[in-house]
Design goal:
By secondary structure, this protein is mainly alpha-helical. Helices cover 57% and strands 3% of the residues.
Length: 366
């Protein structure tokens, strides 16, 4: 067996023992646990860099947040700020908890978490309670990322690469940005979705410009490491713009059909789409209304200030809303996608054309 030279940068008594010849590499390999940053590939032990380590950790603390929130709400003695229905439900959960089966317990935990969000009680936890307990070990020098560049060689079958699309990268970054904001406003589970969109953005990024992939991976890593959503929008948008110019890709409105085949090519609220919206559950209708208002506000803000942040917010809000309704209202979801693609370069055009989401907000306001 062999030990990759980067492993010697890790401060670990087992590494010292290997260097002194008192511990064999086979014994070192057998001593490794899931919390160690070492990976065995064929006959060589490699070490993950700090970014690789944190970006590949499981987001286990999200479920801990649900559990902590559940216990906290049930421990409250003063429920005067809550409605009578919520107080009665909490009393019911307390009564049934000792004997309820696991499946019912999970449903109750989800419902209690929703109540906590309603009254903004999730913020009672400090970030120290939410971050992962596993830490990257101390090092004598910065560990160079080696494994990321080797992943394509781990499989006998060739990995199917996506066609690079910087517009798709921007879309997923926009969605991740919206979810990052929501995660800091009492919806911690949205960090999972945020990291998912960053992973999608990484897959869509050009392979011959690894700097963009590594930057997005760093955002995932810091989010996982700290428990706080980390996505500095403007420097990342600047990098995306530079990459766009490097690969000389045309703006999104030059080809509206690059992402996937469309189910419908309309941007109008046709009767079939209206019927889909009317059949949505009330919770989804409320999301359609609140998202529609936020989208309208982002368009107006872009019209006034002409800054990138409201434009990206427009893109992310519309894309996230489309994903939220896609399963139950596919025509509506595709109509939202069409509006996003048509107006993302300049959302003000949506006002001029009469598609500033007033029609959608009005439909679900009744």
């Amino acid at each position: 067996m062999k030990l990759h030279p980067e492993c010697y940068k890790i401060k670990d008594r087992r590494i010292d023992a290997v260097l002194k010849g008192t511990l064999s590499l086979q014994a070192f390999a057998l001593s490794l646990t899931a919390n160690d940053p070492f990976i065995l590939l064929r006959d060589t032990i490699y070490v993950l860099s700090e970014d690789e380590f944190y970006s590949t950790r499981s987001i286990k603390h999200i479920s801990d947040e649900y559990e902590q929130t559940f216990k906290y709400i049930l421990s409250l003695e003063d429920l005067s700020l809550m409605s009578s229905d919520d107080v009665a439900f909490i009393a019911k959960v307390k009564k049934e908890l000792p004997t309820c089966p696991v499946c019912k317990y999970k449903r109750y935990r989800q419902a209690i978490h929703s109540i906590a969000k309603k009254y903004n009680l999730i913020h009672t936890y400090t970030i120290d309670q939410l971050i992962p307990s596993v830490k990257y070990p101390e090092t004598t020098a910065e560990v160079v990322p080696v494994l990321t560049t080797m992943l394509d060689h781990l499989y006998d079958l060739p990995k199917q690469d996506r066609k690079p699309c910087i517009d798709c990268v921007e879309k997923h970054v926009a969605q991740a940005y919206i979810l990052a904001q929501e995660s800091e406003m009492g919806y911690p589970e949205h960090r999972i979705l945020m990291c998912g969109h960053l992973a999608e953005a990484i897959d869509e990024a050009p392979n011959d410009i690894p700097e963009l992939k590594y930057t997005l991976q760093t955002c995932m890593s810091i989010t996982m490491q700290t428990g706080n959503a980390f996505l500095p929008l403007y420097p990342i948008l600047a990098l995306i713009k530079m990459v766009r110019e490097r690969i000389n890709q045309q703006p999104v409105d030059a080809d509206l059909r690059t992402e996937a085949p469309m189910v419908t090519d309309t941007i109008d609220l046709i009767p079939e789409i209206q019927n889909e919206i009317k059949q949505l559950p009330e919770e989804l209708k409320r999301k359609v209304w609140s998202s529609g208002v936020d989208i309208k506000n982002s368009i107006l803000e872009y019209k006034i200030y002409k800054k990138e942040e409201p434009r990206i917010r427009f893109e992310g809000l519309v894309a996230n809303l489309a994903e939220a309704v896609a399963a139950q209202a596919p025509l509506f979801a595709n109509m939202l996608r069409n509006r996003r693609l048509l107006f993302v370069a300049d959302p003000v055009l949506a006002i001029d054309a009469g598609y500033d989401f007033d029609d959608i907000v009005a439909l679900v306001s009744h």
